[in-house]
Amino acid sequence: MSTPQQLRYTKEHEWLSDAVDGVATVGITEFAANALGDVVYAQLPEVGETVTEGETCGELESTKSVSDLYSPVSGEVVEANQDVVDDPALVNTAPFAGGWLFKVRLSEEPKDVLTPDEYTALTAGN
Fold first, then answer.
1. Distance CA 117, CA 121 (A)
2. CA dist., res. 50 & res. 48, Å (int)
3. pTM > 0.90
4. Alpha helices by DSSP H, 17-115
5. What values do phi and psi take at 123, rounded to 5?
6. pLDDT tens-digit readout, 4-24
């Protein structure tokens, strides 16, 4: 399983890029994508919507289940990945590249994020 070293992670299996000009990219991890199975529908937060760290902001539906999407940060959504809405399978095939979910202008630094090593330890027993 891949855990890119340049990202930070949450216990809910989202990843977060470092902010560039105050904007960070959010997605779900390969671990989460594998656990979900084939993603067939993505409801992402809308541009202009305010998201709150740790709160639900959308959902991903797979052939197995529906899973809430939690925001790893607080801020304003500046972009949602329309490619994922049009082709939800991107979440499975490229979770750290084309399968990113949304971009958010941070209103504060995230509090509950894990380093790649901490995330690897979290998922090691699963």
1. 6
2. 7
3. yes
4. 30-36, 82-86, 90-93
5. -90, -5
6. 999 999 999 999 999 999 999
User: How many Å is the Cα radius of gyration of the chain?
Assistant: 13
83 backbone dihedrals φ, ψ, rounded to 5°: -60, -35
Which of the 8 DSSP states describes residue 37?
-
Which of the 8 DSSP states describes residue 85?
H
In tens, the pLDDT along 16-63 reads 999 999 999 999 999 999 999 999 999 999 999 999 999 999 999 999
Q: 36 exposed, middle or buried (CB, 10 Å; 0-12, 13-18, 19+)?
A: buried
Q: What residues contact 39, with CB distance under 8 A and at least 6 apart?
A: 33, 60, 61, 62, 88, 89, 91, 92
Residue with tokens 């999407």: 69
Residue 104 β-bridge partners: 24, 77
* Number of residues in the chain: 126
